[in-house]
Automatic annotation (TrEMBL):
Matches recorded under InterPro entries: GAG-pre-integrase_dom, Integrase_cat-core, PolX-like_BBD, Retrotran_Ty1/copia-like, RNaseH-like_sf, RNaseH_sf, SH3_retrovirus, Znf_CCHC
Location of the CCHC-type domain: 175-190
GO MF term (any one): zinc ion binding
PROSITE patterns per UniProt: INTEGRASE, ZF_CCHC
UniProt organism field: Mikania micrantha
Keyword Metal-binding: yes
Protein name per Swiss-Prot or TrEMBL: Integrase catalytic domain-containing protein
Length: 649
C-alpha cells in the first residue's frame, strides 16, 4: 500500500493491481523499460549528430562522446577506437579544419588520450589567437556597413551546419545567410541564387584562360581552393607526379592532370616573401592563381576595396595588388617578375628541344658506336635499327683522325658461301702497356662468310693453340657445323709472309686488327681514362663491330651469325661518366645509393654494363642499374694526351 501511494495517480492507473510487492515492482519496471535496440539507435544518432559548441570545453566534449561509445559497448554495439576518433574529428567546427587536415595527412593513428591532449593544445592555441580574430572580424564588419551592394557582401558561413547555429533562441529554424527566421540556409532562395551567380563567375574565369595572359603574372582568386602555376621556377620543394595521378577539375567540367606539387615562394613588391604550400604545377593553365582560402588557412588576412587589396599577417603587409579585368593581380618584385618571364621563354623553347636534338644527333651515335663511319650509320638508319638521325652535325671528328689516319685497305677477293667454311685468325701484340688483368696481346677469329668475330686476350703467343681449341669447341657446338679452313699469316692457304708495317697485305684478320686498334685509340682519346684500360675498350670494339654493317657483307655480322637483327638501344659512349647502383647488403640508411664511375664495356656472359670505379674497393664492377651522362661527350673537340699504346715487334 505504501508503494502504491508513492506513485502518481495517473501512472498508478496504468499498472495492474497486484497484492504481491515483488510482482508489483516488476510490473512498474516493465512499464518504463525500453528495448535495448531502440536505446542503441538513439545513442548512435546522438553520437553521429553531436557537434562541439565551443563553450563546454573540448575535453568534456570528447569525454561525453567516449561515454556514448561505452554505453553502446554495454548494448553489444561496440565501436572501435578508430571509428570513434573519426566521429570526434567530424564533430569539430570549421575552426579546427587545419587541425583535421594535419591528422588526415599523418600515417600514425592517435589513441584516445593522445587525441584529447592534441585537441586541448589546439583549443588553447585558438584562445590565444582569438583577440586578433575578433579585431579582424570587427574591421570587416565596418567595411560591410559602408558597402551599398548588399548581394556582393553575402558569403555563407562555414558553421551553418551545426544545430546550435541553425536555430534561434525560440527553437525556430534560422538562416545564417539572409538572417531570417523560418528556414535553414540550405533551403534559402537567396543562398541558392548566390551559388548560381558564383558558379557563372567561375566559368568566366575559366573562359578567360584562353586569353593571352603574361606568364610572369599572379592573380588572386577567392573561389579557388588550391594554388596553381604553369611554371616550375621558384619551387623550394617539388614532387613529380605520374600522369593523371592527381587531376584538377575546372568549372567548365574539363579535367587537367597535375604534373607536380610542392612549396613555391613569391617575392612581392614589398620585398617580403610569401610561401605557397601545396602548389599545383599544371603546364596547361594560363593564369597563375593564389587561393584565398589557402592563404586564410596559412594565417594571412586579405582585405580589398577601391580597386586594391592587401595581404597581411600580424599587422604587417606582405603584399599588395590591383584590380585588373575583374580579378586582382598581385604586385611582384620587378627583378623577380623579369626572371619568371625569361625562365618561361627558355623553358618552353630549349629544354625539350635539346633532349630531342641529342637523341637524333649523328655525332652522339657516332661516339656511342665506337666512332664508326657515316656510311655505317646511314645503313643502320635505312635498316631501321636506329631512328632517323640529323647528319648536319656530323663534321670532321678529330678523334677519328687521331685513331684512324692510314692508307686504304686492300679488298678481299675470295669469299665463302656458308658459316665456318673459312676462319681468319691473327695475333696482335705484345703491346707496351699491359691490360688491367695483365694481358699484352690478343687473338681474333673471324668467320669469312658473316665477318662475325671472337676476340681473346692472351699474355703470350704460346697460348694461341689452347685458345683456338676453346673457340673451335664453342662455335661448332653452337652452330652444329664444322670448321673447314683456318687461315693465318703463316699457314693454311700458303699466304706469303708479310713485310713489317704493311697489314694491308695480310687479308681479313690483319685489317680487322687495324680497325680494332684504330677504334681503341679513338675511344681512349675521347675519354679521360688511363691507358691500361685499352683491353676493356678492345672488347667493347669487338662487341660493336659484330653489330654494325661491314663493307664485305650485306647485313650485320650478328644477323648473319644468329639470324636476328641486333639492338643498339643500350649502347653508350665508352668512357662516359655514370652513376651506378651496386649491390651492397651492408648499405646503411644514410649511405649514398650510387657510385660515380666510368663506363668501360659490356659483360661477356650476362646482361648489363661494366664500369671502372677508381674510388671503389672493386675497381671493375658489373651492374645494369646505372644512369649515364654520355650526352656530355658530344662536342668532339676536347683535347686529350695521345696514347702510348704501341705494338712491339
Amino acid at each position: 500500500m505504501f508503494i502504491k501511494n508513492s506513485i502518481s495517480p495517473i501512472i498508478r492507473g496504468a499498472i495492474p493491481d497486484l497484492a504481491n510487492a515483488k510482482a508489483y515492482l516488476t510490473a512498474v519496471e516493465e512499464q518504463f523499460k525500453g528495448t535495448s535496440k531502440a536505446h542503441a539507435s538513439t545513442l548512435i544518432m546522438k553520437l553521429v549528430s553531436t557537434k562541439y559548441d565551443g563553450v563546454s570545453g573540448i575535453r568534456e566534449h570528447i569525454m561525453m562522446m567516449n561515454d556514448m561509445a561505452r554505453k553502446l559497448k554495454g548494448l553489444d554495439m561496440e565501436i572501435s577506437d578508430g571509428f570513434l576518433v573519426h566521429f570526434i574529428m567530424t564533430s569539430l567546427p570549421a575552426s579546427y579544419e587545419a587541425f583535421k587536415i594535419n591528422y588526415n595527412t599523418q600515417k600514425e593513428k592517435w589513441l584516445m588520450n593522445e587525441l584529447i591532449a592534441m585537441c586541448v593544445q589546439e583549443e588553447e592555441r585558438q584562445k590565444l589567437e582569438k583577440p586578433d580574430v575578433a579585431y579582424l572580424m570587427a574591421t570587416g564588419s565596418k567595411k560591410r556597413k559602408n558597402n551599398t551592394n548588399r548581394e556582393a557582401s553575402k558569403v555563407p558561413k562555414s558553421n551553418a551546419g551545426t544545430s546550435s547555429s541553425s536555430n534561434n533562441s525560440n527553437g525556430k529554424p534560422y538562416c545564417k545567410f539572409c538572417r531570417k527566421v523560418g528556414h535553414k540556409q540550405k533551403d534559402c532562395p537567396d543562398f541558392k541564387e548566390w551559388l548560381a551567380k558564383r558558379g557563372n563567375h567561375l566559368n568566366m574565369i575559366i573562359e578567360s584562360f584562353n586569353l593571352n595572359v603574361p606568364t610572369n603574372t599572379w592573380w588572386f582568386d577567392s573561389g579557388s581552393m588550391v594554388h596553381v602555376t604553369n611554371y616550375t621556377q621558384g619551387f623550394l620543394t617539388i614532387q613529380r607526379l605520374e600522369r593523371n595521378q592527381r587531376t584538377l577539375k575546372l568549372g567548365d567540367g574539363k579535367e587537367l592532370s597535375v604534373a607536380a606539387v610542392g612549396t613555391l615562394e613569391l617575392i612581392m613588391k614589398t620585398s617580403l616573401c610569401i610561401k605557397l604550400y601545396d602548389t599545383l604545377y599544371i603546364p596547361e593553365i594560363s593564369r597563375n592563381l593564389v587561393s584565398g582560402p589557402k592563404l586564410d588557412m596559412d594565417g594571412f588576412y586579405v582585405s580589398h576595396g577601391n580597386g586594391r587589396f592587401t595581404i597581411s599577417s600580424n599587422s604587417q603587409v606582405f603584399g599588395t595588388g590591383l584590380l585588373d579585368g575583374g580579378l586582382y593581380k598581385l604586385e611582384l618584385d620587378d627583378d623577380f617578375s623579369k626572371s619568371l618571364l625569361s625562365y618561361n621563354i627558355n623553358e618552353n623553347s630549349t629544354k625539350t628541344k635539346r633532349k630531342r636534338d641529342l637523341e637524333t644527333s649523328s655525332m652522339l651515335w657516332h661516339q656511342r658506336l665506337g666512332h664508326i663511319s657515316r656510311d655505317r650509320l646511314s645503313r643502320l638508319v635505312k635498316d631501321e635499327v636506329l631512328p632517323s638521325l640529323d647528319f648536319t652535325d656530323f663534321g670532321t671528328c678529330v678523334k677519328c683522325l687521331k685513331g684512324k689516319m692510314t692508307t686504304a685497305a686492300k679488298k678481299c677477293v675470295t669469299r665463302s658461301s656458308n658459316l665456318l667454311e673459312i676462319i681468319h685468325t691473327d695475333i696482335s701484340g705484345p703491346y707496351t702497356i699491359a691490360g688491367i688483368t695483365g694481358q699484352t696481346s690478343f687473338i681474333t677469329f673471324i668467320d669469312d662468310y658473316s665477318r662475325y668475330m671472337y676476340l681473346y686476350l692472351i699474355k703470350d703467343k704460346y697460348e694461341s693453340l689452347k685458345t683456338f681449341k676453346d673457340y673451335e669447341t664453342k662455335v661448332e657446338n653452337q652452330l652444329d657445323l664444322k670448321i673447314k679452313v683456318v687461315r693465318s699469316d703463316r699457314g693454311g692457304d700458303r699466304e706469303p709472309v708479310h713485310r713489317p708495317g704493311t697489314p694491308q697485305q695480310n687479308g681479313v684478320a690483319e685489317r680487322r686488327n687495324r680497325t680494332l686498334m684504330n677504334m681503341v685509340r679513338s675511344m681512349l682519346a675521347n675519354s679521360d681514362l688511363p691507358s691500361f684500360l685499352w683491353t676493356e675498350a678492345l672488347k667493347t670494339v669487338a662487341h660493336i663491330l659484330n653489330r654494325v654493317p661491314s663493307k664485305s657483307v650485306p647485313k650485320t655480322p650478328y644477323e648473319l651469325w644468329t639470324g636476328r637483327k641486333p639492338s643498339l638501344r643500350y649502347m653508350k659512349v665508352w668512357g662516359c661518366l655514370a652513376e651506378a647502383k651496386l649491390y651492397n647488403p651492408f648499405l646503411k640508411k644514410l649511405d649514398m645509393k650510387t657510385v660515380t664511375c666510368y663506363f668501360i664495356g659490356y659483360p661477356d656472359h650476362s646482361k648489363g654494363y661494366r664500369f671502372h670505379c677508381p674510388t671503389h674497393v672493386t675497381r671493375i664492377v658489373e651492374t645494369n642499374h646505372a644512369h649515364f651522362l654520355d650526352d656530355s661527350k658530344v662536342s668532339g673537340s676536347s683535347e686529350n694526351p695521345d696514347s702510348d699504346l704501341q705494338e712491339t715487334l
